UniProtKB/TrEMBL annotation:
Region (Disordered): 167-192
InterPro entries xref list: DUF6361
Protein name: Uncharacterized protein
One Pfam family in the UniProt entry: DUF6361
Length: 427
């Protein structure tokens, strides 16, 4: 199968605010990954499944350690005297200390190279976007109760710009609602939540978790998102071991079909896993047709022939699709739960595409659905517009849906390795 993108684009924007800048950075991070450009508008449904399976995880996270380093920087700032806080705003302090963390990690792994150090290869280049761990991990930090606040990162930093306002004033909840943190009953209702650490911690910082850090982070995830796939894997050490033993090349479809422990999971979660797997099997066909249409208008007969052959193969596989368990309503239930807005044209496209497949509609009718959806979704930038002129020789659009599986595997592995090593040391 052909799953590459060969389209290069230039993006520019007017930088009005830090919040606007962060949103643009997130879009650029996604667009920089091959095979994720969402030409048919299904990304919001994909993200709803991902939020159910691996909440707090994002595709641009790298290592579990950052869930703890960012809160520590905030806590260090909280310890500063009011005069020192007046002399340096939190946003500036955070930026400076994230750079120090990057430098320390690189230096401390010089003889032990590790992947996933954010900013390791960063070099100042005009137009390059620099991502900081605080931005990449903020949603997960809040979701796992590591910083208890409902605020965005930018709003949190602005609100805390007043050095006379304690962090406790930004806490989420009250003494009567301490949340689901396993250790909340033993603490005051502080905003920053984390295991103990030593002063000067940045100097010896590595990407590896200590035993205490791994247990703490695992417990927070289990407590805050217990019914997710992430929480269930961490709750059961045997399931965790089986999950990390699965072949690394497995995509989500193979995982959903063959992972040996799925039968042990709660039924509600099994339905979501099956729904995510089946959703992509159905929508992959739409992306194959989209690329067939692109080749008809902008490509070559040879490449079109490859995609048409893939379409025939996909149709053959569809003969065994598990229609008895399919529920289109699950898609809209999950988007509502996770407060993700789906455009009306996307709802119509997805429902019409699935019903067309179930009813055995001809290819021409299905092509019309795909063409109309791409034009709705991309408007003047639609490649299937009659006036569009472009040369396309490779796959365009989403190539696979893995629902954050690979990143979650890295995060869980970091926790598992630290705990396994500590148990070995204690033996």
């Amino acid at each position: 199968m052909i799953h590459q993108t060969g389209i290069a684009s230039a993006i520019g924007w007017v930088d009005f605010s830090s919040e606007h800048r962060e949103k643009v950075k997130s879009v650029i991070d996604l667009l920089s990954t091959p095979g994720v450009v969402d030409e048919l508008g299904i990304g919001v449904i994909r993200d709803s499944f991902s939020d159910s399976l691996f909440p707090g995880i994002s595709t641009i996270q790298t290592r579990a350690k950052y869930f703890l380093t960012v809160p520590r920087i905030f806590r260090d700032y909280e310890k500063l005297s009011a005069s020192k806080r007046r002399g340096k705003k939190l946003a500036t302090y955070l930026n400076d200390h994230e750079n120090l963390c990057m430098e320390a990690m690189v230096a401390n792994h010089e003889d032990d190279p590790q992947g996933g150090i954010i900013g390791e290869s960063f070099a100042e280049k005009q137009g390059e976007v620099q991502r900081k761990p605080s931005s990449v991990y903020w949603t997960g930090i809040r979701q796992f109760g590591l910083i208890r606040t409902p605020l965005s990162l930018q709003a949190f930093c602005r609100r805390f710009a007043n050095p006379d306002q304690p962090l406790q004033d930004l806490v989420q909840g009250s003494d009567k609602t301490k949340g689901d943190d396993p250790d909340a009953a033993g603490q005051e209702n502080t905003t920053i939540n984390g295991p103990a650490y030593m002063d000067g911690w940045i100097e010896s910082l590595t990407v590896d978790l200590s035993k205490e850090e791994a247990y703490f982070l695992s417990n927070q995830m289990q407590a805050r998102v217990p019914m997710s796939l992430l929480g269930q894997i961490l709750l059961d050490s045997e399931v965790q071991t089986q999950f990390l033993s699965l072949p690394s090349e497995w995509n989500f479809t193979t995982f959903a079909d063959e992972a040996p422990f799925l039968g042990q999971l709660p039924e509600s979660l099994r339905k979501i896993i099956a729904g995510a797997r089946d959703f992509w099997q159905l929508m992959y066909g739409a992306h194959v047709r989209y690329n067939c249409l692109l080749q008809m208008q902008h490509g070559t007969s040879a490449v079109r022939g490859e995609f048409e052959a893939e379409w025939d193969e996909w149709l053959e596989d569809l003969q065994s699709f598990p229609w008895a368990r399919w529920d289109t309503g699950l898609l809209w239930k999950l988007t509502k739960i996770h407060r993700r807005r789906v455009r009306d044209n996307t709802v119509h496209f997805v429902e019409s595409w699935i019903e067309g497949l179930r009813s055995g509609d001809d290819t021409k009718s299905l092509d019309e659905l795909v063409t109309r959806q791409e034009r709705f979704n991309k408007k003047g930038r639609a490649r299937l517009n009659p006036t569009a002129e472009e040369s396309i020789s490779e796959w365009v659009g989403i190539a696979d849906l893995n629902y954050r599986l690979n990143v979650a595997r890295t995060i869980i592995s970091d926790i598992h390795v630290a705990i396994a090593q500590s148990e070995g040391d204690d033996a």
